[in-house]
Design goal:
By secondary structure, the protein is mainly alpha-helical. It has 2 domains: 48 residues; 56 residues, no CATH class. The protein is 53% helix and 5% strand. It has 4 helices and 2 strands. The protein has a two-stranded antiparallel sheet. The chain binds zinc ion (ZN).
Length: 112
């Protein structure tokens, strides 16, 4: 059963050995290994910039929109599931709204 997808490569939990969950995001064992290689091979003086700040052609930028949107959708679905869990445990819309930095009414309208 597909529970979640890696937020980096979009592989579902059924196609990876391990899928580690974070706050609304997931990373698979294969992507962790890629990250370790990138960290180990990174020159010390490379400045950190946002991925969209790199000099990229439009075609590549457009190709990036699909996985970013898919990751965003998964985060929104994950948030809704957590809100549902809070409700099942007796959490009020006021408590949920406060946790999300919104009003009780806004929380109810978004998740009820
Ligand atoms: Zn992955």
């Amino acid at each position: 059963m597909v529970i979640a997808r890696c937020s980096f490569c979009a592989k579902p939990n059924t196609e990876v050995d391990t899928l580690i969950g974070g706050p609304g995001v997931f990373i698979c064992d294969g992507c962790v290994q890629l990250c370790v290689s990138a960290i180990e091979g990174k020159p010390a003086d490379v400045p950190m910039i946002a991925p969209w700040e790199h000099d990229l052609p439009l075609e590549q930028v457009l190709q990036n929109l699909t996985p970013v949107s898919a990751a965003s959708t998964q985060v929104q679905e994950n948030l809704a599931a957590w809100v549902g869990k809070a409700r099942s445990l007796g959490g009020t819309w006021s408590q949920i709204g406060e946790a999300l930095g919104m009003t009780r009414q806004s929380a109810w309208e978004r998740f009820a």
